[in-house]
Design the sequence.
């Protein structure tokens, strides 16, 4: 995906060996969430957000995919618990 390529193509900071950090636009953030939801849970970003907002993941699903739910919840947090417009 273009967003991921743009983020990972940066050269490390020569002094500290760190990759520069930059903020993402709303659209870029949704693109990253979509990519990770598809990779980790085989859901689109919108499908993940809807389930996350309504707490529709079953306990078994949360247990089986605990790390994926945690990571994606951190990515979803900026989009809040409100429903999309």
Sequence:
């Amino acid at each position: 995906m273009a967003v991921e390529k743009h983020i990972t193509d940066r050269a490390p900071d020569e002094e500290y060996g760190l990759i520069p950090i930059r903020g993402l636009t709303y659209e870029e953030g949704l693109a990253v969430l979509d990519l990770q939801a598809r990779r980790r849970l085989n859901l689109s970003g919108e499908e993940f957000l809807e389930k996350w907002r309504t707490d529709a993941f079953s306990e078994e699903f949360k247990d089986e995919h605990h790390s994926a739910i945690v990571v994606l919840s951190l990515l979803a947090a900026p989009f809040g618990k409100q429903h999309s417009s």
